[in-house]
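My main concern about presentation is that the manuscript never shows what a single data entry looks like. For the editor and my fellow referees, an illustration may be useful. For illustration, here is how one protein appears when written out as sequence plus structure tokens:

***
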Amino acid sequence: MADVIRLPIQTSDGRPLMHKFYRQKGGAEGLIVLLPGGNYGVDGPMLYYLSEMLQASGWDSFAVTYGYQTRMEELSLETVPGLVGECVAAVQYLLSERNYARIGFAGKSIGASVAAHICQLEPGLEAARLVLFNPPFGHPFFDSTFMETRQPAFLATGTADRFYDEAAIDYLRASRVFELCVVEDADHSMDVVGNLEASVQAVNRVVVNAVAFLTSE
């Protein structure tokens, strides 16, 4: 059973950083850090169900809302250093409070880039695992950082995602090993437009595979 805990962490401009932290009573099997997209929040289906399934397996779950979002600002190059710094500081605090045998980062879109940056910047995360939903293939903020990470990684995308790019995927695969799940006709939210059943199946497929990836030996 997990308790809802409020942490004393701050945005880059000194305000309380909005977050949801579910901490297991006693010990935890692992920690999952959820990093949303620009328009895909922590309660979006992929992040929500991933968190729910891992919590049921005894994991702690931390989901953040970026400071720029609470200021009602648009994502820009100026906001990126602040949101990465916020997330790094939050992870440092979490790891100072409890030792975890397993650590996972699940990022959606811009959150995939943030997850890669955290694993690149923060020492001691060599054994962490990356789950990256709809990463922005071909964008330098993602590609250059992801190629420098060495953590095991599971990536999921759809053929109707605006960032789906076979050439960019092949370019990344030439630099590092990762697992890839491609869903036919799924868009940047893993929706199959106009087909509810296919959309639910798409989310189910990527979440089940992500959980298996994070919990495997």
